[in-house]
Every structure is written in C-alpha cells, then in structure tokens.
C-alpha cells in the first residue's frame, strides 16, 4: 500500500540552496524512494515571482513522488500541517553590515517563523535550521516555539561533517563511503572543530583502521586538515563567486534522512543539537555533537575520550556560541 505523503517545508525556497534542495526532496533523496511528499515552499514578497518559477519547474519535472506543491509568501499557509521544516531562508550579511545588525534581522525572522510553525505545523514536526548563524537561529527558534520539544530542533553541521570525510578520503585515496565517524564539534562557523580521533577507514579484511594511523601525519591532521574544513565555505565562495549550494542541499537531505530513517549500525553523524551538558558543554546551547539516530530520535554518542588538544578546541567553539547567544538576546530587548 502506498504511504501517506509527508509534508516538507523549505523556507527561502527561491534561493540557491532551495533551488538545489527541492528537486532532491521530490526525488526521494531525503525520505526514501517509496515516500511520497508534498512540498511547502516559503519565500518573501520580492522573491514571489522566482518562487512561482520554481513551482513551474517542479511540475515540469513530473516527479513520481511529488504529490503537491504549496508555493507561498504567507508563513501561516506555508507551515500548515508540515511534518518536516527545513529553514533555509534568512537575512545574509551584506558588505558594511555589523554582526549585530545581521543577528538582529535573523532573530526577528526566526522568532516569527518559530511562532508560525508552533501554531500550524504537525505536532511531531522535526526542524532543521540551515540559515546562518545556524546554531543561534535554532536557539532563537527553540525559545519562541516552546511547545515544540527541544529534541525536534536541530541545525545543519552535516555539510562540515561531509567535508571532513571528503578531505580524509582524498588524502588516503579511498572512497568516501569507506571513511566514517569524523566529528564536527560546536558552531557551524570557522571555530568549529573537525575531529578525526575516533574516525576509521574500512580495511580490506573487513575490519577498520584508525584514520590517525593511516594518515600517519599528526601535523597535517592538527593543522591543515582542520583549517581546510573550517574554511571550505570561503574557498567555495572564492571559486564560484557564490556560496555552497548543492553540497548544502545534499547535506540537509543526509541530515533529515538519517534522523528519520536511522544511522547505520556502528556509524555516527554530526548534528547541531540541544546540549544536555554532555562533554562539559554548557546545557542549552545548540552545539554540534556526534549522534546516532534510531526510530526518529537522535542521541549524543557518549564516552569518547577527549584529549587536551580537542578539549581546548571544543571549549573555544562553545565560547563563541555563548557570545552569539548573548548577542542574539541583546537583539531581543
Ligand atoms: N549550515 C550550513 O551548512 C550552510 C551552508 C550553506 C549556506 N548556509 C546558509 O543558508 C542560507 C541560505 O543560503 P542561500 O545560498 O540559499 O541564500 P540565498 O540568498 O540564495 O537564498 C535565501 C532565500 O531566503 C529568502 N528569505 C529571506 N528572508 C526570508 C524569510 N523571512 N522567510 C522566507 N524566506 C526568506 C530570500 O528571499 C532568498 O530567496 C544562508 O543563511 C547561508 O549562509 C548554511
């Protein structure tokens, strides 16, 4: 019997990531090849015509899984009954703008959208915030949607996670699917800490070998590897004159897919989630941790050994999040 369709909201759907993301969702890359979907696309008035065009293209692509498309500039209409919300829309930092000005714009967007979703989405709605500053937008979202369980509000650091897998795969000349269990700790910003201390590569005998042992170059792993992952977004802007879009869209699909359908046994992924104090991270921050997912629930991987080098980097990115949080709160007043 055919499954009931799942309603997926994409905000900022007329933008670059939205344009790459909606066809992926309609093809089953997010929820699986047998899951029909209804796409809800929200954007703002100046992008209304472009949004109409995206809807026309979705119709023209004749996707078998796509049951309907709602394209609107009305947040209430967009949020009605949605089961999954991918929040891509936001206010970008423009030249000459202060950090506080950008924060203030996004705080008011996330405050309003949190209230709309809380009132109109399906009760079990899962939320993924992509728009930057992603962790702090998710935190504001959580504050203003108190009836949505904090376990249902996450932010995207899977792109950074996938970038780390990609760098190790290139270095060792192995396929990316053979590398697993890297970790992105902290903020989706240049203070994030990409950690390979627990990462492994599939060995030819079926076992696993530690990445550190195979790379055999601690200096590279502790310096260039980290900065390459941290600054990959800037490198893409330099090359493309536009920020990463297809890889961000693909990572958003990976994030939701693993959250809903589960992570493979023995594998974890990175997600920005509500800190419960694990690994000494201040409770209440939205911080990227290693997580496993089962039956639609994520749990933070516990008991990993943290060395001094990692500790310092994990604390530095937490400190930045505490500062962002207080900046965001100052914008509320
Ligand atoms: N977390 C990550 O890994 C990651 C990666 C890449 C980009 N990003 C962020 O994702 C966001 C989107 O990137 P993009 O390249 O698609 O940007 P974009 O400018 O191409 O698109 C953004 C869209 O959001 C819309 N928008 C603005 N305010 C809105 C609102 N209040 N409600 C609904 N829509 C609104 C805009 O009209 C636009 O269509 C940016 O904040 C970017 O920094 C995050």
TrEMBL record:
Taxonomic source organism: Corchorus olitorius
Entry keywords, A to Z: NAD, Oxidoreductase, Tricarboxylic acid cycle
Reactions it catalyzes: (S)-malate + NAD(+) = oxaloacetate + NADH + H(+)
Tree of life domain: Eukaryota
Span of domain Lactate/malate dehydrogenase N-terminal: 6-153
Gene Ontology molecular function terms on file: L-malate dehydrogenase (NAD+) activity
Membrane-traversing stretches: none
Name assigned to this protein: Malate dehydrogenase
UniProt: NAD(+) binding residues: 12-18, 43, 106, 130-132
Entry EC number(s): 1.1.1.37
Lactate/malate dehydrogenase C-terminal domain: residues covered: 157-326
Active site: 188
GO BP field: malate metabolic process; tricarboxylic acid cycle
A Pfam entry, by short name: Ldh_1_N
Enzyme's top EC category: oxidoreductase
This protein's record includes keyword Oxidoreductase: yes
PROSITE patterns in the cross-refs: MDH
């Amino acid at each position: 019997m055919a499954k009931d369709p799942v309603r997926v909201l994409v905000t900022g759907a007329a933008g670059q990531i939205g344009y790459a993301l909606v066809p992926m969702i309609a093809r089953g890359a997010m929820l699986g090849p047998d899951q029909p979907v209804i796409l809800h696309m929200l954007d703002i008035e100046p992008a209304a015509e472009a949004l109409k065009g995206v809807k026309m293209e979705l119709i023209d692509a004749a996707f078998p899984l796509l049951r309907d498309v709602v394209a609107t500039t009305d947040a209430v209409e967009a949020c009605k009954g949605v089961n999954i919300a991918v929040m891509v829309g936001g206010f970008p930092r423009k030249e000459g703008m202060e950090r506080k000005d950008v924060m203030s714009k996004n705080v008011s967007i996330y405050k309003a959208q949190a209230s709309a979703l809380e009132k109109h989405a399906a009760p079990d709605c899962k939320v993924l915030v992509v728009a930057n500053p992603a962790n702090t937008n998710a935190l504001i979202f959580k504050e203003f949607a108190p009836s949505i369980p904090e376990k249902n509000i996450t932010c995207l650091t899977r792109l950074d996670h996938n970038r780390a897998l990609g760098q190790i795969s290139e270095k060792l000349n192995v396929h990316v699917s053979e590398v697993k269990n890297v970790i992105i700790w902290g903020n989706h910003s240049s203070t994030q800490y990409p950690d390979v201390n627990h990462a492994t590569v599939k060995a030819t005998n079926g076992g696993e070998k530690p990445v550190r042992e195979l790379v055999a170059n601690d200096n590279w792993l502790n310096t260039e590897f980290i900065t390459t992952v941290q600054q990959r977004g800037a490198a893409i802007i330099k090359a493309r004159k536009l920020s990463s879009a297809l890889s961000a869209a693909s990572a958003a699909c990976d994030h939701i897919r693993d959250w809903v359908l589960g992570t493979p046994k023995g594998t974890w992924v990175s997600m920005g989630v509500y800190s419960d104090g694990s690994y000494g991270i201040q409770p209440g921050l939205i911080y990227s941790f290693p997580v496993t997912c089962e039956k639609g629930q994520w749990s933070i991987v516990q008991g990993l050994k943290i060395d001094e080098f990692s500790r310092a980097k994990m604390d530095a990115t937490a400190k930045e999040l505490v500062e962002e949080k207080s900046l965001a709160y100052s914008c509320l007043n």
